[in-house]
Design brief:
single chain; 147 residues; alpha+beta; Alpha-Beta Plaits; 2 domains; four-stranded antiparallel beta sheet; elongated
Length: 147
């Protein structure tokens, strides 16, 4: 990771400016060009250092439901099940982990009572048990990289 990419990540940890020219605003704070900021973000995405770049919404504060779910999937069936899980619009992201529960994903819904229905549909289509792991307490951890 380049020093500029580290600076971009550090700068955006506190939020993305809501303005007519947000990339220019970030660039001004970092002392670089708008193009350097945009290409830095694209490079982080291309290299897999960032999995996505976009807004995060607090589903619960907006009246929706949110949960973390896990499944234990044989490696031979992992891709098929991942395609099923990822096919649900309520699935925000899905990650493979080196653990007995090797598939972890987040489900966000318009209404809290819809979470269970989505998990039941995933379980039915995938043919494996889905473990619902709702948040009990929320923590905010800041990430700061050495530039």
């Amino acid at each position: 990771m380049s020093p500029l990419e580290s600076q971009i990540i550090n700068e955006l940890q506190g939020g993305f400016p809501v303005s007519e020219n947000p990339f220019a605003e970030v660039a001004g704070r970092l002392g670089v060009s708008e193009e350097q900021v945009m290409s830095g973000i694209q490079g982080l995405l291309n290299d897999g250092m960032l999995s996505r770049f976009g807004p995060l919404y607090h589903a619960e504060r907006m009246g929706g439901g949110l949960t973390l779910a896990a499944m234990s999937i044989p490696e031979s069936d992992f891709d098929r099940v991942a395609a099923i899980v990822n096919g649900f619009p309520e699935v925000a992201h899905n990650y493979e982990r080196d653990h007995e529960f090797n598939m972890w994903f987040v489900v966000a819904t318009d209404k809290p009572e819809q979470v269970g229905n989505v998990l039941e549909h995933i379980q039915s289509q995938a043919g494996y048990t889905v473990f619902n792991m709702p948040k009990e307490q929320e923590f905010f951890i800041g990430l700061r990289l050495e530039a």
